[in-house]
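Q: What structure does this chain adopt?
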Amino acid sequence: MKLKQLISFGVISTIAFSIQTAQAFTPVTSGAMYSQQIQATSRRSTIAQASQNIAAVGTFVAAEKPTTGTARIIVEKGQRYLVLDAAFQTSDQGPDLHVVLDPSDQPPAQYQDPKQYIVNLGKLQKFSGEQRYLIPADVDLSKVKSVGIWCQMANATFGYASLQLSNNS
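A:
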């Protein structure tokens, strides 16, 4: 076939497009383009960190049962969450464990009035590992002083984390 025929069938333009497309997906590992990619990735990472601020942080201590790990209240995309870190662990002896936000630095061993805590964020998702709980918008975080792991059935605080305001908030 002649070159004019190949062009009229679009074969040449398809081949040229395929070569350009393949070049677009070739990873850049050095040079000016590599530096630009690193800078763009760094900017995206900074933006992601800015959209997640740590409002408060605390370390769990035992009350009725051994409880360890860290609790953080974070603000992410306008929503507030309580995050228990990967090191979080408490006893599996509680059949009805809940996560509560409390107005005192040290929640009581037993609640005289179950509504003494500020809010019950719900049942503990698992006895260990990272997990997160949405904090309702109407909760006044300035009144939250600690996070408790509380067994509703036994009315016993297994462990708690006193919260300190973070410099990032």
